[in-house]
Design a protein that fits this description.
Radius of gyration: 19 Å
Largest sheet: 7 strands, mixed
Shape: globular
CATH architecture of the largest domain: 3-Layer(aba) Sandwich
CATH topology of the largest domain: Rossmann fold
CATH superfamily of the largest domain: Vaccinia Virus protein VP39
Strand order of the largest sheet: 6-2-1-7-8-10-9
Number of domains: 2
CATH class of the largest domain: Alpha Beta
Number of helices: 8
Number of strands: 10
Helix content: 25-40%
Strand content: 15-25%
Structural class: alpha/beta
Order of helices and strands: HHHHEHEHEEEEEHHEEE
Distance between the termini: 40 Å
């Protein structure tokens, strides 16, 4: 993935007629607008449905039922879920399929917020059409929820209903609500520098309900201990009950 960013940067230098990175650094110091271009070059939106199957199996069989019980004890009939850095949408749509077709608890309705910084990417995400390679890890019985359209497979509208998309930069903005479950995978704790990670980790904890869960990527960890969060696995953290 980092190689992909380097290739983009080399292309950008060629477009600008620059030969050395030092020349580009000088341009960044002189032209603040170029920072927006650089920010876009550094985004890596690699995803697919059911990515990291062990995580999804754990969610379906253990974690979502736990959260549903907690919600019911609070007298609620919905589970609020945030997919942060949703890229092309496979993660939130996988969640929606899990509730509709899988063994996710039926006692609670899912409300899934999916955010990403790239408005053009989210525009494609709302179409919910994907190449066949993106579906290869989905359970076979779930693939019937897609219809073939040319070279793509488009998710049926009934499975998109629980998902709301919002353009948002997690470095600056957070949703104005609290969540039972936050998925922040393969973004903040892979690509951002440690000081930014610390700030965002604290803010993620603040928008979790008591007993709520934060899921990171399968090879990620928090940069340091976050008040209120207890680690229950390499990629799993729970907000303390109050």
């Amino acid at each position: 993935m980092r190689g992909q960013v380097c290739k983009r940067l080399r292309r950008r230098l060629a477009i600008l007629g620059l030969k050395e990175l030092s020349d580009y650094c000088a341009l960044l110091e002189a032209d603040t607008a170029e920072w927006r271009q650089l920010d876009g070059l550094c985004r890596v939106s690699v995803s697919r449905f059911y990515r990291d199957q062990g995580v999804w199996n754990c969610l379906e069989r253990e974690l979502l039922p736990q959260l549903a019980v907690q919600a019911s004890e609070r007298g609620e009939t919905r589970l609020r879920i945030w997919s942060a850095g949703c890229a092309s949408g496979e993660e939130p749509y996988t969640l929606a399929l899990m509730f509709a077709l899988g063994d996710a608890p039926k006692s609670c309705e899912p409300e899934i917020l999916a955010t990403d910084v790239d408005p053009h990417l989210l525009a494609r995400t709302r179409r919910a059409c994907y190449p066949g390679s993106s579906l290869r890890e989905l359970p076979v019985k779930w693939r019937a929820s897609f219809e073939k359209s040319g070279d793509e497979f488009c998710l049926g509208p009934e499975y998109r209903t629980p998902v709301q998309f919002l353009v948002q930069d997690i470095r600056r903005d957070f949703p104005d609500e609290r969540f039972d479950l936050i998925l922040c995978r393969n973004l903040v704790f892979t690509y951002f520098q440690a000081p930014i990670q610390v700030v965002i980790a604290g803010r993620l904890a603040e928008v979790l309900v008591p007993g709520g869960l934060l899921l990171l990527g399968s090879h990620e960890s928090l940069p340091e201990t976050v008040p209120g969060l207890t680690q229950e696995g390499q990629w799993l953290f729970r907000m303390e009950m109050t």
